[in-house]
Each structure stands twice: as structure tokens, then as C-alpha cells.
Design brief:
The protein has 266 residues and is mainly alpha-helical. It has two domains: 3-122, no CATH class; 131-264, no CATH class. It contains twelve helices and two strands, in the order H-H-H-H-H-E-E-H-H-H-H-H-H-H. It has a two-stranded antiparallel ribbon. Helix 8 runs parallel beside helix 10 and helix 11 packs antiparallel against helix 12 (246-264). The protein is globular and about 65 Å long. The relative contact order is 0.08.
């Protein structure tokens, strides 16, 4: 699906029929087609939403900016150039000030409105890096989530590797590693579980492995060297599991080798 296809689909969604949301789609499309810079896009988004923010900073419709953002991440997040532009958009958006009619800063909680990217973390958890449970879907449809999940994980890994203020993205690492590597799960079958989760594990280590290893050593964000060692062991088990497709076995070995090289300082 091209950016144009994504934009066409988003514009036709019943969820995004308001004038503000249609204009937000235009901005995101222009950003990803290199017709607007991340800075211009951030100001465009703020300008579109400013009347809503001034009327009520808690208006739930403001969060639509993140619903669209998550959709884009799931669509293009595996493209590092696109993810870089989206991360820069967040950087610029966090710097924008919104003033009321008296020139006072509008706030969300204790901070200026955009400073902490209000509702972004919640929306990304629910609509960005999430996957549907396997017991609610046909198994082939469940595995088909692998591309969007890989894209979202790649974006999260780029955030973690390059932006200290995004260190909270580490929250998702343990869940992905556990889902991919814990052998005791009965469902889905190992080949299906590996097909969905091992590419995402690869994204974490390939993009942010150095940062993750450092966090494990420092016991930051709930990570530890015990986690690092257990992930290596789990990757070995996936590679040795004859119920896993050869492609995923080889990818598991590749990720394990990357981890060992990081630990050796290579």
C-alpha cells in the first residue's frame, strides 16, 4: 500500500470525516511525500487542532492526531527514512506553544500543551504497537499482522535508540521477547508465533541493540542482564525448534549473533 493508498483509505474511514481530521490526513501525506518538512508539518497539525485545544484541552477528538499517526507507523514504520521524519515531527510538535486569547500558555496537566505529547503514549500502546489476540482471529489473519507489528516495532526501536525522551519505548521489549521466546506457550503453534514475533525481535536488536544492552547493564526501565541472557537462550531454542520454519530459525540465529557481537563490543 502506497502513501496515497493509505491516505485514500484514511479519508474514507467513518472515524475521520470531520474537517479537522481530513486536514490532518493531508498534512501527514505531505510529510511522507516530502512536500512538507517535519517542522512545517508540526506547525500545520498544531494550527489545525488549536481551536479544539483552546476550547477544551481535554477534548477526546484531539487524540485523533495520534490515531492517524499510529496508522501511518504501522504502514511505513519499517522504512527508517519515514520513521526518522515521523520522529522529527514529534520533536518539533513538543516545542510548539499554544496560547489562549490572553496570551497565556495552555497546558495539559502541569506542562505546556504539546510538551509531553499528550495521549501519545496511550494511543501508541493501544493502536500502534498492539496486536490482536490469536484466540479471536483465524490463525492466518493473526500472522498477517506481522508487517504492521514489525513496522511499529521498528519505529519504537528508532525512538529508543535516538531519543532519550522516548526511553519509555523500552516498556514494549519484554512483552515482545516473551511472546516470541517463551517455550511454554501452547498456542499459537511455534511456527505461527515465530512468524509474527521474531521479525519484531530482530528490529529491536538490529536498530536499538546497543541501547538495549546498555539499559540491561544499567538495569534501566526494568531491564537487566538476566533478561539479555534469557533472550539469547530463547533465540537458541527457536532456532533449534523443528516446528519453526527455516527462515525464522535463521533469523533467530542472526539476532542471537548480533546480541553476542554487541556484548563483545564488536
Amino acid at each position: 500500500m502506497s502513501i496515497q493508498d493509505w491516505a485514500t483509505e484514511a479519508r474514507s474511514s467513518t472515524e475521520y470525516q470531520s474537517p479537522e481530521k481530513q486536514r490532518l490526513i493531508d498534512v501527514y501525506q505531505a510529510l511522507l511525500e516530502n512536500k512538507l518538512t517535519p517542522e512545517e508539518s508540526a506547525h500545520g497539525i498544531s494550527t489545525i487542532l488549536e481551536p479544539l485545544i483552546k476550547r477544551n484541552p481535554d477534548d477526546v477528538h484531539i487524540a485523533s492526531v495520534w490515531g492517524l499517526f499510529c496508522g501511518i507507523v504501522r504502514h511505513v514504520g519499517g522504512d527508517q527514512a519515514a520513521s526518522k521524519r515521523l520522529i522529527e515531527l514529534l520533536d518539533y510538535l513538543a516545542k510548539i506553544e499554544v496560547k489562549d486569547d490572553h496570551g497565556n500558555d495552555l497546558k495539559y496537566g502541569a506542562a505546556k500543551f504539546w510538551t509531553n505529547l499528550p495521549s501519545f503514549a496511550l494511543m501508541f500502546r493501544e493502536y500502534g504497537i498492539s496486536i490482536e489476540p490469536d484466540d479471536e482471529m483465524d490463525i492466518n489473519d493473526w500472522v498477517a499482522q506481522k508487517t504492521s507489528y514489525f513496522n511499529a516495532t521498528s519505529f519504537a526501536a528508532m525512538c529508543l535508540a535516538n531519543r532519550p525522551y522516548m526511553s519509555g519505548m523500552a516498556f514494549y521489549i519484554k512483552g515482545n521477547m516473551s511472546d516470541a521466546l517463551v517455550a511454554e506457550y501452547e498456542t499459537p503453534e511455534p511456527r505461527f508465533r515465530a512468524a509474527l514475533h521474531i521479525p519484531a525481535v530482530s528490529a529491536w536488536i538490529s536498530i536499538a541493540g546497543q541501547k538495549i544492552y546498555q539499559m540491561c547493564k544499567e538495569e534501566a526501565q526494568g531491564l537487566s542482564m538476566e533478561d539479555w541472557k534469557s533472550w539469547e537462550k530463547g533465540l537458541d531454542q527457536v532456532a533449534e525448534n523443528d516446528q519453526v520454519d527455516e527462515e525464522m530459525q535463521n533469523l533467530a540465529l542472526d539476532v542471537r549473533d548480533k546480541m553476542r557481537n554487541i556484548q563483545k563490543g564488536l
